[in-house]
Design goal:
It contains 5 helices and 8 strands, in the order βαββαββαββαβα. By secondary structure, it is of the alpha+beta class. The strands form 4 sheets. The chain has a two-stranded antiparallel ribbon.
């Protein structure tokens, strides 16, 4: 899975450039399948990319059955030959992880670069990491436990 730690993102957008060059063979970050969005109120940059959902809504709503899971990488892949550009997947994606190609008017999304995401290789602050689901789940549990521990400490000091 592609793990994102927004607090580490510096907003350099090198991930977008690397993605566009890898997939489109052109230095055009606006064509990237990953997008870095700045959360203005907090001054935080958040990389937005397909989450390769366990139950992908994009696959369910696609009337052409153009979105399927790659058995090797686990990535949800859009078959460009089947996609008619209806954009239902874009409308229903809860993460904003699907883009529309300006020229073809068809959709595209992260395909995990066949199991070796280029964006991860170019992310110097390590805001993007490619991890197996077990490792990612363990990290999330550890972080949740640390936050809960901090919350308890605060509660105990106010009593």
């Amino acid at each position: 899975m592609l793990a994102i730690e927004p607090e580490k993102c510096t907003g350099c957008r090198l991930c977008e450039t690397a993605c566009a060059i890898h997939h489109e063979k052109i230095c055009a970050p606006e064509k990237a399948r990953i997008r870095v969005t700045k959360w203005e109120n907090e001054g935080v940059y958040i990389p937005i990319v397909c989450q390769q959902c366990e139950t992908p809504i994009c696959e369910i709503v696609c009337p052409m059955h153009a979105i399927n899971r790659n058995a090797e990488t686990g990535a949800m892949i859009i078959d460009d030959k089947l996609c008619v550009g209806c954009k239902l997947c874009v409308q229903f994606c809860p993460f904003g992880g699907i883009i529309v190609d300006d020229k073809t008017k068809k959709t595209a999304k992260c395909d995990l670069c066949s199991g070796e995401p280029v964006c991860v290789k170019f992310c110097q602050p390590k805001a993007l990491q490619y991890l197996d689901a077990t490792t990612l789940n363990l990290r999330k549990r550890r972080t949740a436990a640390e936050r809960f521990s901090e919350y308890l400490k605060k509660m105990l000091t106010t009593i």
